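Thread: quick sanity check before group meeting

JM: Hey all, I'm pulling together slides for Thursday and realized we never actually wrote out the predicted structure for the chain we discussed last week. Dropping the sequence here so it's in one place. If anyone has concerns about the input, flag it before I start.
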Amino acid sequence: MRFFRRGKGASDPRKPSLDLTGKTPAVRASICTGEQVAGFKDTQTGRFTEVMLIRTEADFEEFLQTCGLTAEQVERIY
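JM (edit): ok, ran it. Output follows.
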């Protein structure tokens, strides 16, 4: 029995289903703990929307590849 089934119109679960107009990619990093979270910052309100936790450099590369970005485009927020 299947409880969770992807239909024909289902999107890829690895890609964020966010409206990215008016948002800039950013990584929010904690100075004390070193925790890093990748997401998008709204340019008008400054609100940060989390997409994924960054534990290793491979996680950061996955975020860049999934969103089609380069490392220079990502802002660091401390």
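AS: nice. Residues 57-67 form the longest helix (11 residues). Residues 24 and 41 are 5 Å apart (CA to CA).
JM: adding both to the slides.
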